[in-house]
């Protein structure tokens, strides 16, 4: 059943065959599931095996040119590509090299297979505007000038524009922010940062305390629900108004952590306390034993603690002291109107993690 608030935009059913590169990640898995739910034929590729997914998955190293061509050789009916594959590297030149190669190898493998590709969806984000550098002009718009520093968002987009023109297909680049949802085995997730942090604090008898700076507590922020983003992906692949365009996409509202943190405490049945700046990356690995105790006590999914949460994600967002707001006027005017109340949605997602035994049961104070 579709989440309430996500049924505003009509989406195409049985529209063709889609390949989702990076179907094991948070964004890719939701895109693959949305296409699958709508009756499309869905193929997914990522480096790791994915058991029990409702689409056709294959484990492929897209960084290996020959392996990519061999593994995708039978996909001669693919009409749409959703490119959510990503490899982390420490520097921008390294990020550009590997992530451009992933995209180029995937496009070339589909061409070699004879796939009648019609559309490619690519994902970017707030770093296109300089979010990672601190302050940037808000609300950021798709027409804002690029930064002078090289970035793989730019080089991938340029590569895609060039190949799309040469091979006669269209593309859309979507720019979400703070994607929230859950994908098994994927720790790059703000939802897990908050949920696991809260569970450990509660087990230790500690209050729900924002672990960032006071300034970060009060700036404006936004998130993008992964299910909403999956729907935007399907829309982008079929809407004429999305062809060869870049769109910001988020839930449609903004918030301050100072508004949400007391609500989180109430929801988790915890006391609330004022912010206390700290490094989750330094502090939380020392609490692995507490998490293991919770896993055993509540029969939770036994994910290794070091692979459960990417604490630096929380440290970055909870120490970012400038507003992070992007305008979604363009995508709404183009025809995608889905929206969510972020506070309500995050609480729903925490409950979903409890139901899936990713987080321990929520008990009242």
Automatic annotation (TrEMBL):
Gene3D superfamilies: NAD(P)-binding Rossmann-like Domain. Pfam families: PRISE. It comes from the Bacteria. SUPFAM superfamilies: NAD(P)-binding Rossmann-fold domains. Residues 63-303 form the PRISE-like Rossmann-fold domain. PANTHER family: 3-OXO-DELTA(4,5)-STEROID 5-BETA-REDUCTASE. This is SDR family oxidoreductase. The lineage of its organism: Bacteria, Bacillati, Actinomycetota, Actinomycetes, Mycobacteriales.
